[in-house]
Amino acid sequence: MLKEYKSVTEVVGPLMAVEGVEGVTYEELVDIEIQTGERRRGRVIEIEGDKAMVQIFEGSSGINLQDTNVRFLGKPLELGVSPDMIGRVFDGLGAPIDGGPKIIPKEKIDINGTAINPVSRDFPSEFIQTGISVIDGLNTLVRGQKLPIFSAAGLPHNELAAQIARQATVLSGGDFAVVFAAMGITFEEAQYFIDDLTKTGAIDRSVLFINLADDPAIERLATPKMALTCAEYLAFEQNKHVLVILTDMTNYAEALREVSAARKEVPGRRGYPGYLYTDLAGIYERAGKIKGRNGSITQIPILTMPEGDITHPIPDLTGYITEGQIILSTELYKQGLEPPINAIPSLSRLKDKGIGKGKTREDHADTMNQIYAAYTAGKEAKELSAILGETALSETDKAFAKFAEKFEERYVSQGFETNRAIEETLDIGWELLSLVPKRELKRIDDELIERFYLGEKEAVEANNNSDIEGTQINEAEENKIENEGL
Q1: 49: Cα within 13 Å, side-chain hemisphere
Q2: Residue from 348, 400, 412 nearest 370 by CA
């Protein structure tokens, strides 16, 4: 029998202290009835003797200590899951907000999940095609991997997230689903994601969890766990390949710091709690594959680096836990590149496991290494030219500088609407590499060079044709804008 307590002694921010409790457990769900008859939910986050600290999801405003009734429900916060969740939009606590009917759950699952036994983990080894050349060609995403995107204020990470959500697919086949969790975003941003996925039809394979900026910070802490619980059900019970996109993890960490301050905990780096690392790991490590099961969870967490500082605790700790990072560049964005992904510091530590013959193409690994080396050499040549002048460059340096320029124009800046197959990405890579003298392609097998390397004339024509096509596209877009204006 559930006991009801009227022994609330303190309310600080989103936290409530209750004394004289018995048999209460950590993470237990709490039902709170305030003096107006309104009911709110909470969870136990700390127990000391007969005192319990309760975290209130809806906030603590308007609570009268003497007239508040508290009941501990003897179970953790759960999410009712069902295959019918696909195509639906929920709030941060799993309640439908799209005007559709309530979900009739097949089962209810603790949102804290259970750790995957390391022995039963299967190594990620299957290519996921995002349709974005810089990711597919150079920083390949592998099924079961966790690959974050590091952004900064003002950069188009929302557009990139939406593009990945609607374009991502597993070439080896199987049911594919996207679970999208947004934390602390504005109403306009939330509507953008919903409209974009609806317009393109990607909503039919997606589940959205939306926590707005004006929603309680406590709800923000539950949102990624709700999304991952849904993903685990779809992956390991429904055998789907699930891609989980979490944005923005910075807002999640800020909410964690807010609650930590309310609990009067000793702060760590920059005021964040000392357990920020383990808390983030508890989210990121829920990605993976399990031996003997067809489904998998792949994660793309997105975070905005405060002040663009990659040494900030949030991106710093995220980098330790995850398998690489995709970095958006303010400099490239100012140049008009879309998406502005900086290929040089970006990295996917599992890329070698998901590419090659039978997965993408046999030339993928060699061209990936050569493109990276050529782009780096081209950037260095352009920096040297800016200091000493172009006359100081050798013919080889000029070729690499030309490669770097064309690489950014054609390979990186593909736009947010273009969906490139991996074969197209690899072919564009060869067209660009053919601008470099053949003798400089030291990272590619000679047999592959003979098969794919274009002659000087063909390479120039291929890249010039791309310039003409780009101009025609731009003119068509300008004419469309003018017509819509009329």
Answers
A1: 4
A2: 400
pLDDT tens, residue by residue, 211-245: 999 888 888 999 999 999 999 999 999 999 999 99
Nearest CA-CA partner of 242 in 232, 257, 252, 256: 232
Residues 133 and 326: beta-carbon distance below 8 Å = no
pLDDT score recorded for residue 13? 83
| First and final C-alpha spacing in the chain | 70
Q: What is the identity of the amino acid at 314?
A: I
DSSP SS3 for 6 = coil
The whole-angstrom separation of Cα 244 and Cα 224 is 9
Crossing angle of helices 276-284 and 217-236, in 10° steps, is: 30
Return the higher-pLDDT residue of 415 and 264: 415
Which of these, 156, 146, 154, 138, lies nearest to 345 by C-alpha position?
A: 138
Show the CA angle centred on residue 109, arms to residues 273 and 296, nearest 5°.
85
DSSP character string of 182-214: EEEE-HHHHHHHHHHHHHHTGGGGEEEEEEETT
Find the largest Cα–Cα distance for the chain.
86
Output phi, psi for 274, to 5 deg.
-65, -20
Q: What pLDDT, in 10s, does the model give residues 271-296? A: 999 999 999 999 999 999 999 888 99
CA distance 354 to 422: 12
Torsion, Cα 375 380 383 385, to 10 degrees, reads: -100
Q: Which 8-state DSSP code applies to residue 409?
A: I
C-alpha–C-alpha distance, residues 73 and 25, integer Å: 10
Chain-centroid distance, C-alpha 462: 34
CB 57 within 8 A of CB 218: yes
pTM: predicted TM-score of the whole model, two decimal places: 0.88
Per-residue model confidence as pLDDT tens digits over 339-358: 999 999 999 999 999 899 98
10 Å Cβ neighbour count for 464?
10
pLDDT at 105 over 70: yes
262 — pLDDT class (breaks 50, 70, 90):
confident
pLDDT score of 159 more than 60: yes
Which 3 state secondary structure label does DSSP give 292?
coil
| Structural tokens at position 96 | 């439908």
Give residue for tokens 């030291």: 442
Give the start-end residues of each E strand in 117-240: 121-122, 127-129, 141-142, 149-151, 169-170, 176-185, 206-212
Residue 248: asked if its preceding bond is cis (omega within 30°), the reply is: yes
| C-alpha gyration radius of the chain | 26
Measured distance CA(313)–CA(170) in Å, rounded:
33
Instruction: Return the pLDDT at 472.
Output: 47
